[in-house]
Amino acid sequence: MLLDLIADVVPAGVINVVTGFGLEAGKPLASSSRAIMQYASQNLIPVTLELGGKSPNIFFADVADANDDFYDRTLEGFTMFALNQGETCTCPSRALIQADIYDDADAIKIANDSLYGLAGGVWTRNGTVAYRASRDIQAGRIFVNDYHNYPAHAAFGGYKQSGIGRENHKMMLEHYQQTKCVLTSYATTAKGFF
Residue 116 forms beta bridges with which residues? Predict the structure, then answer.
């Protein structure tokens, strides 16, 4: 186990591994994050928080229009929920597959029917559908025809109860800085207000 390998380097208690289902593990962690935010506010300390939670992975019918490389990529994308036993914060734990009797908006409604919004996926051959769906899903990071791609410069953070603030992007520095405005006049005479 990794923790055994780094035990001599990292002090005890710095890294903790918590496993379990939503009620036994997720709920206490979410409560902990709220407590951290409350403690930070008492001292006016800036904080960013990130929580995962029920990320939708939407597959539109046109992905199966041809049995080609893109279709294989889509099938691979469907399996992304199984990586890391589903324990990644952006795990696409809800696969929504279009059926002809439902409208591309029912999928969005189902995708957004969650208290959380860290990530989501959209799979389609249609650029307009990809654009609209990715804009309509209430999540901080949307993967289009891809999943689990984490470029270091891309902003990362959630909507709703999946966190506050962003990480990894230069914009995240704004959460930890204060803007100061200094207005200096080099005039030596009165302004003449009246």
Answer: 160
Is 181 annotated in the active site?
A: no
pLDDT, tens only, 116-169: 899 999 999 999 999 999 999 999 999 999 998 888 888 888 888 888 888 887
Tell me which H or E stretch contains 69: helix 69-78
The answer to whether residue 50 is catalytic is yes
In this structure, the strands spanning 119-123 and 56-59 are parallel
Cα–Cα distances in angstroms (integers) from residue 90 to residues 45, 72, 181, in the given order: 27, 22, 39
In DSSP terms, 144 is beta-bridged to: 122
**pLDDT at residue 173, rounded to an integer:** 77
H or E element in which residue 164 lies: strand 163-164
193: its two tokens: 């207000």
Q: Are strands 119-123 and 159-160 parallel, antiparallel or unpaired?
A: unpaired
Domain with CATH 3.40.309.10 in the chain: 50-176
50, 87, 167, 181: which is the annotated catalytic residue?
A: 50
On the 0-12 / 13-18 / 19+ scale of CB atoms within 10 A, 160 is middle
Catalytic residue among 76, 87, 89, 167: 89
Most confidently modeled of 35-44, 49-58, 89-98?
Answer: 89-98
Q: What is the CATH number of domain 50-176?
A: 3.40.309.10
Q: DSSP state, 188?
A: -
116 sits in which H/E element? strand 116-117
